[in-house]
Write a structure and sequence with these properties.
6-stranded mixed sheet, alpha+beta, 21 helices, elongated
Length: 703
């Protein structure tokens, strides 16, 4: 307390006075002489401190406060401070703040440093797609049918352009030509919508080099016009600084339009930050996963102005190239087939026709084409609508007509019902289920040999033989021969084939004609001669190939090999017809060419076997319902050269050609194509081989 004491004096003063009376003052100390400079540093040593009482600032008669202590800070850097002057306190505060700041900064650098580094890398880095080269498609002779070449796409980023767009438009005009106004409009549109505009889509790299050379020239002009003494900026802006380049590939087809329907096409599909060549038709689509590679990714660093560092690769995932494939097409034969097919189509005023050339010994498709053919660069919407990009021999199901009679005859021979010389009584007409069936030429009642029934293509005769066979066995044999089953050819869009069905308004199947129990007598007879059954031309070619191949049905295909991995695919082979039945059927089919409806297919010096066919065509009738046309038919011929060193089968079909009824073009086209094949493959006749007594391994047929 500081109140008065008993003697009337303040208590503090009283205590101070008492102490002052009991202690004698220290005598004054003599001052120290000045100290000499340090011998090494040259600096004077500190003068000795003032006397302790003077340093403490004590007053006479007042006891000073015991000296305070400031703890050592930062591991002994600061010594104990004994005085409490304002200057010393300020220095202590500054030191504490300084050390605290250092601590905070150290924490940020050590604790958040990795995050800050990542953020900086994100700002100065960018991803660059490494395009993957698509695999090459080769024909059987090593000719490239489809391959990918280096290309560069050129884009204009209007958002990065500041100022008048005219200089940029003029620079683009100098390199690429075209309208300056169009370039200005393109730039302004890019600026407005914030989207890059494509100037060149997968062009030759030389185009990009020309534009880069123009940019270099503009940069040099900028340097030349700099005021004297002014330094050259690290990044020089030009009218072409808004141009970006993307290294890609473009798909090219060295054989141009030849085989285009089979080889197919690609589209460039944007996938994330890159575009990919993806197959959209033909073999390009069928083998897209094999041909298409996997794009890589490269992370690179760039400068403030967006210029990439010379060696600024941060990370890289390399691209994986697509695989090459070798297919069975022979492009010389393919070109001949297309040329001949187009010529016949023009001659007969027919814009819908298709043909197949197949090596039946192994199932390899040597050539295939259909009308209309098309130009890759100039396809019209009408051509696309008419299936110009598709191989109709695979994708179109149609009623084949009488070419199917050989399958009915083969079933009867397999069952031992008739020999080629056995006869069948064939009335002029027969009636089944109130439907009249007759032949396509005027005749009266006639007894025909089995061979004549086939060679003259008698509907009545083959229908009566079917009734001897029975509808269940006919259906089973047709299944065995591959008519109601997919071929599993390696080409997209193979349709369902067979016997059709009836659906209600909701799409529910009411009647499924694949079940032979649904066949009445009229339908069964029609199916036996190629009506009310839907097949593809490839199925027909495979069946005739089975006859040429001594009863072995080979799976038709295009792919022969994947050379990079030395992969040879396996294809099915099934014995579906006995050798004795084959030999008898060949004799009967030979008579079709020598004595019957296929005489125009004959080739001097060679044994040609084959069969003509006239299929009914369904057209739109009243109320949108399908009805059979009375004037339009599909005319076909299927055959091969027997007793030769080749098993090449050729099938040709024409939809409603001029004069088709009296002079069908199929046999003539077969003749021209096979003559070319004889010369190209040096096909020569060979002596007949002995016929084995039995052929084992055939599946059992239903009773």
């Amino acid at each position: 307390m500081s109140g008065p004491g008993r003697d009337g004096r303040p208590r503090d003063a009283r205590r101070a006075g008492a102490r002052q009376d009991s202690r004698a003052p220290h005598p004054p100390r003599a001052p120290h002489p000045p100290r000499a400079p340090h011998p090494r540093t040259g600096r004077r040593r500190a003068e000795p401190s003032a006397p302790r009482d003077q340093a403490r600032g004590s007053q006479k008669g007042v006891r000073s406060r015991p000296p305070g202590r400031v703890a050592q800070i930062a591991g002994g850097v600061w010594s104990t401070v004994r005085d409490s002057s304002a200057e010393t306190k300020l220095m202590v505060v500054i030191a504490v703040v300084f050390i605290a700041t250092i601590a905070v900064l150290s924490y940020r650098m050590l604790g958040d440093g990795s995050q800050l580094l990542q953020e900086a890398q994100v700002k100065r880095s960018y991803d660059r797609v490494i395009a993957a080269r698509r695999g090459t498609i080769f024909d059987r002779n090593g000719n490239a049918l489809a391959l990918s070449e280096n290309a560069t796409s050129i884009y204009l980023d209007g958002s990065s352009l500041i100022g008048d767009p005219l200089p940029t438009a003029l620079a683009l005009h100098d390199v690429f030509g075209g309208s300056v106004d169009d370039y200005v409009k393109m730039i302004k549109t890019s600026q407005e919508d914030g989207m890059a505009a494509c100037i060149v889509d997968r062009g030759a790299p030389e185009l990009a080099e020309k534009l880069k050379a123009k940019d270099d020239k503009l940069k040099q002009e900028f340097k030349n016009n700099l005021p004297k003494g002014e330094s050259i900026p690290w990044s020089i802006p030009t009218a072409l600084s808004c141009i970006n380049y993307v290294d890609e590939f473009r798909r090219v087809y060295p054989c141009e339009n030849t085989g285009a329907q089979i080889v197919g096409n690609v589209n460039y599909v944007v996938n994330g930050t890159s575009s990919v060549e993806m197959g959209v038709s033909g073999l390009e689509l069928a083998y897209d996963e094999i041909l298409r590679g996997v794009n890589g990714m490269q992370k690179r660093e760039q400068g403030v102005m967006g210029d990439p560092f010379t060696n600024g690769i941060v990370s890289e995932q390399p691209a994986v190239e697509g695989q090459d494939i070798i297919v069975s097409l022979d492009m010389e034969l393919q070109k001949e087939v297309e040329t001949q097919l187009a010529a016949y189509g023009e001659e007969r005023n027919c814009n819908n026709a298709w043909t197949t050339v197949l090596d039946s010994s192994n199932g390899e498709i040597l050539a295939m084409a259909s009308l209309p053919l098309y130009d890759r660069e100039n396809i019209t919407s009408e051509e696309a609508k008419n299936g110009a990009t598709m191989a109709k021999a695979i994708t179109v199901a149609y009623e084949p007509g009488s070419v199917i009679k050989a399958a009915t005859a083969a079933a009867a021979l397999e069952e031992g019902l008739l020999k080629p010389t056995d006869t069948v009584y064939c009335p002029e007409v027969v009636v089944r289920d109130e439907h009249t069936i007759k032949d396509n030429w005027a005749r009266g009642d006639e007894t025909m040999s089995f061979t004549r029934v086939l060679s003259m293509s008698s509907n009545v005769g083959i229908g009566l033989i079917q009734e001897m066979l029975g509808k269940d066995k006919l259906g089973a044999y047709f299944d065995r021969y591959g008519f109601a089953q997919p071929t599993h050819v390696d080409y997209p869009h193979e349709p369902r084939t067979g016997y059709g069905e009836i659906k209600d308004e909701k799409g529910n199947v009411i009647v499924d004609y694949h079940d032979t129990a649904t066949w009445n007598a009229h339908r069964a007879m029609n199916i036996s001669f190629g009506q009310n059954i839907y097949v593809t031309q490839l199925q027909v070619a495979s069946f005739y190939g089975t006859i040429a191949n001594d009863g072995v049905l080979m799976q038709p295909h295009f792919l022969m090999a994947r050379p990079r991995f030395d992969v040879l695919p396996n294809y099915s082979a099934q014995t579906v017809m006995g050798k004795q039945a084959v030999d008898k059927l060949e004799d009967m089919l030979r008579a079709v060419v020598t004595e019957g409806t296929g005489s125009r297919a004959s080739i001097e010096g060679y044994d040609v076997v084959g069969k003509t066919g006239t299929g009914e065509k369904v057209v739109e009738g009243a109320g949108g319902l399908g009805v059979y046309s009375q004037t339009e038919f599909i005319y076909s011929f299927a055959g091969y050269i027997d007793n030769s060193n080749s098993n090449i089968v050729c099938v040709a079909s024409f939809d409603s050609p001029t004069d088709g009824r009296y002079d069908p073009p199929g046999p003539r086209l077969f003749n021209d194509i096979m003559r070319f094949a004889i010369a190209r493959y040096m096909i020569e006749p060979t002596p007949d081989e002995p016929v084995p007594a039995e052929v084992a391994g055939l599946p059992e047929m239903p009773e």
